[in-house]
Amino acid sequence: MTVFIDADACPVKAEAEAVATRHGVRMVLVSNGGIRPSQNPLVESVFVSEGPDEADKWIAAACGPGDVVVTTDIPLAARCVAAEARVVKPTGEELTAANVGMALATRDLMADLRAADPFRQGGGRPFGKADRSRFRDVLDRVLRQVSTVDKSG
User: Fold this and answer.
1) What is the 3-state secondary structure (H, E, C) of the chain?
2) pLDDT > 70: what percent of the chain?
3) Phi, psi (degrees; rounded to nearest 5) at 80
4) Integer Cα distance of 36 and 21 in angstroms
5) Out of 8, 20, 55, 67, which could bridge 63 as a Cys pair, Cβ 3.0 to 4.6 Å?
6) Is pLDDT at 125 greater than 90 in this prediction?
7) Domain boundaries, the chain
């Protein structure tokens, strides 16, 4: 079991490290660089080449059943779900086979709306303490579930 973090713009790296460490789970921070390596022996940093989606490609190729991926990137989440990994967004929302298709459709619709109306930019609410707390709780629950499946399966 490994927790993969799409680390370039991830606001919950410290929270993920704390939860993964408490569970004794390896964590891999994947980025294009600029991320300070952790001193934690359970945390590994992987630096991929510059370019859009290079970290996403690496994570999608590396993850599989029993792994957990933390990302806000919906296309990456869909690829990870297809690889049977569990996916958690930094807000604490878990993306599954049941809801990732709707998340992709919503993402595409919002991109089309923004393209059609140049004044419709941004959106959503700011990331806050409640999101961090929800993320920690969901990641903790998911790691317990994956650990239970690993031990029984």
Assistant:
1) CEEEEECCCCCCHHHHHHHHHHHCCEEEEEECCCCCCCCCCCEEEEECCCCCCHHHHHHHHHCCCCCEEECCCHHHHHHHHHCCCEEECCCCCEECCCCHHHHHHHHHHHHHHHHHCCCCCCCCCCCCHHHHHHHHHHHHHHHHHHHHHHHHC
2) 81
3) -70, -40
4) 17
5) 67
6) no
7) 2-152
CA 83 centroid distance within chain: 14
Measure the CA–CA gap between 117 and 105, rounded to whole angstroms: 18
**Whether domain 2-152 has CATH 3.40.50:** yes
Contact of 4 with 68, CB cutoff 8 Å: yes
Question: Could you tell me the pLDDT band of residue 41, with boundaries at 50, 70 and 90?
Answer: very high
Alpha carbons 1 and 18: distance in angstroms, whole number: 16
